[in-house]
Amino acid sequence: MFMAKSPQTTSHTVAPSRSRGGATTIGLAVLLGVLLGGGGLWLYRSLTQPADQSEQIQLAMQNLKGSQQSLQQIQSEFEVLRGQLVLEESTRKGLEKSLLATQTELAQTREQLAFYEQLLPPGPSGSVTVRALDISKRGDLLEYKVLLQRNAPEGKAFSGRLQFQLTGRQDGKTVKIDLSPSSGPDSVLAESSLEQIDPLILNFNQFQRAMGWLALPQGFEPTALTLNVLEGNVIRASRQEKIAQPD
């Protein structure tokens, strides 16, 4: 019986000692794991934190560079727009100056038109007036200068011709004849050229100036010259001038 009890006593003594040793070993393992984990985390942070800051700096520099490029592009667009604005302003000022000059010229033209309209002869629209007639005798030729005016500021142009009728004495009798144009004393125009030019033809709206030469018949003593303005066969205006004999 004694021998049987001794092993039981020994068995109860050894079991608690092994249990405390296992717990201690586990605790040390956990502590070592915590220490290793904390150290690893600190080492990881120590190794990775400078890299993160470098990436942030590079990202910030890239953003700054992009902002600078955007600013340069905006400045370029601003310069282009400012140049266009300066050009448009210059063009506008030029157009305003041209418009002002045109308006001034138009006002002057209207004043001149009003002045000339006051000079128009009285009478119905389209009537023709002989404003001036000058006749001078040179040998066998008569030189004439005529100024005609028509009361038609907006009318159709007048088409007609001049007719010169000469009154005088020939072979002791008083006669009245129609005169034909001449080339004049200093002209080299041929009669055929005179027929083509025909200086007696009229075509004007408000004013017409005519001048030329008329041939006198041989032995004719002129006393007066009558100018008729014809439209077809109708006399629209007439004027008579005495012919002064040369000294």
From TrEMBL:
Coiled coil: 57-119
Lineage: superkingdom: Bacteria
Biased composition (Polar residues): 1-16
Regions that span the bilayer: 21-44
Region (Disordered): 1-20
InterPro entries: DUF6776
UniProt keywords, alphabetically: Coiled coil, Membrane, Transmembrane, Transmembrane helix
One Pfam family hit: DUF6776
Keyword Transmembrane helix: yes
Protein name, as recorded: Uncharacterized protein
Lineage: Bacteria, Pseudomonadati, Pseudomonadota, Betaproteobacteria, Burkholderiales
